[in-house]
Amino acid sequence: MSxxxxxxxxxxxxxxxxxxPKPAAKRKPVKRKAAPPRKKMGIIGYILAPxxxxxxxxxxxxxxxxxxxxxxxxxxxxxxxxxxxxxxALLDGRTRGSVTLLDREGVVFAWRGDQFGGxxxxxxxxxxxxxxxxxxxxxxxxxxxxxxxxxxxSAMRINMREGRKPWRGNGGSTITQQTAKLLCLGVPFDPxxxxxxxxxxxxxxxxxxxxxxxxxxxxLAMEAKYSKDEILSIYMNRAYLGGGARGFEAASQLYFGKxxxxxxxxxxxxMAGLLKAPSTYAPTNNLQRAQDRAATVLKLMREQGYITSxxxxxxxxxxxxxxxxxxxxxxxxxxxxxxxxxxxxxxxDTTEDVLIASTFDNRLQTAAEDAMEYIFETKVSAGSEAQAxxxxxxxxxxxxxxxxxxxxxxxxxxxxxxxKRQTGSVFKPFVYAAAMDLGFQYDSTVVDExxxxxxxxxxxxxxxxxxxxxxxxxxxxxxxxxxxxxxAVKVSEAVGRDSVRDVATRFGIDNALADGPALAxxxxxxxxxxxxxxFAGILNGGTAVTPYGIRELKxxxxxxxLMGQEGGLGDRVITPQAAEQLIYMMHRVVTDGTGTRxxxxxxxxxxxTGTTSAxxxxxxxxxxxxxxxxxxxxxxxxxxxxxxTGGGLPADIWRETMVRVTEGxxxxxxPMIRPARAPRVEPIAPxxxxxxxxxxxxxxxxxxxxxxxxxxxxxxxxxxxIFGN
Length: 725
What we know:
Helix content: 25-40%
Number of helices: 23
Structural class: alpha+beta
Number of strands: 17
Strand content: 5-15%
Largest sheet: 5 strands, antiparallel
Distance between the termini: 187 Å
Shape: elongated
């Protein structure tokens, strides 16, 4: 090869000429503008200079402090946010439960404790109710962040104008702030710190400047944690609305007998109006005042566009009214008795929701209340402080109605169950019950005469009759009908005081009975409920009954009861034959004796009057075939009654009660004997007349029912030892 030498490396062509560096350009000197000449400050400038300096100083300090405060506030809100529970845990914040009472037909008639109708939400209630609450309590609720500076400033201005401290009185609180207060700012109830829930709530509602600050902080945290409707839901479940109702569902059920989801516009306005002052505006306290307050709420709703003028006019024309149960406010005294009948942890101190099925009859309760009101209005002097009590009972001891005083109150002194008073002659049927059971007959003869009994430590005790007169020989029927004291004492001594005490105790008079011969005249004390129950035992054919009002007690939602009926029929005390004779004798009290003002036309009645010494107490207790009614009358301070005996006003009250109680019922016959020839009941002899045979002992006429000879011998032997033969 010709050209076999080293080849030159292939390289790209040099396309650009190698440029030479340009010489550095010379900098031109920058000409600075001359500073403008300083203006002279002048006199005004010198005057304002310190203020400008002070302003710059304050501004520099203020924005730094504000920044730190906002940082601290944000940290506090964030911390509070972390302590807030989930929504469901806040809907029912009661520390005690409720008691709902059902009548004999299973219808709700009364409530006690903190009622909670069940959790609701702002969107589950009637729209009118939601709108009414917002319009009344916080019209800017859906626009603020939990606090309303405008509302606070307005409230402070009003408070100072009215002479109060800025934070006393009107609070300007938003619904969120009110909810924070209802939650006690997250502080739970501690029984070691607060005696009860009332004290706890009062402490939570204290208004101080520091507490208002905490409230605002809590409100801001709530706004961050929950939606507006969730906050409103908490508020609507926790707000107290009077009558023991916690939340709008309970209030709607209590006042109107319906769910809050079905509340009408007038009902919604009335419930929203309760938020300002629940006890004051509760419709059960004053319906007219509640309706007037509702009219104010309707006006606010119309002004804020929730209802039209036509809606407002229609609601005002037909305002909300109470349900039948709420209007009746039934059985205040009766309910108090029921609440005391069961263990307190299931009634007054319950932390659960309890349901009690009772024996209460609202019709009979109304009958008793109306009867007492009628007699006091027509036959008792205006302004009299005399009191009365009524118990209505079935023969088996089921208490149907109870009036503990002439005023319709709740929590007042219940004279039907708490007043232990001397029974007087209303006790005498138990003397004769003991005698009938031992063989005496309705037509046995005893001499009404003056006699004395030597009592240890007291000397001779000589019973006296009303009117201080004696009538001579008379049957036991006449003695009971005329309420003759001497005969009652003679019979009591004949059968033995222990026998009389035993019969009375077994019939249910559970008190210490007198030891002396005055036992027969009702010297012992008892309550109206006990005495009425004892008479029910007589009507029941001689089988004792225990008065009762609770049929069943259970927790809401449970099927198995915690308590059943505790009362009713008990053991036999006297024979049916003795009871039939005694009922007949008590029937003659009404037809021919001291209780004639208690007659009911063709309806058979049996009963007994009673008046204690000095007329401090007056009684009438009696029964038809269906019901037993007991009436007591007297003064709480034992002031003697003027011109009143058991056969007077108490018999009038009894009759008016029984006329209403038995309305529409068939006139059933009493379970008593019906002798072919009734014993005569002679008119009362003129005062001062004495009888012959003053030393005769009780003599028994031939019996229509044969007794064993041993019983007769025993009785005659006892009589002989006491009175001589």
